[in-house]
Amino acid sequence: MKSSSVKKCIQCGDPVRGRSDKKFCCDDCRTAYNNIINRDANNFMTKINRILRSNRRILADFNPTGKAKVRKEKLLTAGFQFAYFTNIYETKAGRVYKFCYDQGYIQLDEYTLALVHRKEYVE
Questions:
Q1: Tell me: the pLDDT tens digits for 19-31?
Q2: Stated pTM of the model
Q3: Where are the domains of the chain?
């Protein structure tokens, strides 16, 4: 015997028609529900991605030819945030480059950085 209760949309409460495992009455409700659920994660990721894009742009601005040296202070003044980078590359000699996508740097001394552009970023 079939149950007489009608399944309701978990977003708006309207009746749900169709498959028995369906949770939403329409695509709009499904999208709205998932946007609410993921809002905090999306905001966090958006903030981090904004910082990474800014860091990449700053490195590219100071490195128009693909190789350059710059004072650490200049990057900081431009808004560079050293805690944010996309990957690390360690050479066989143990030198560590930090990259923001295809733009990277290595600390030469306390005040100076060497900037590099990695042409074949995606391997």
A1: 989 999 999 999 9
A2: 0.68
A3: 27-117
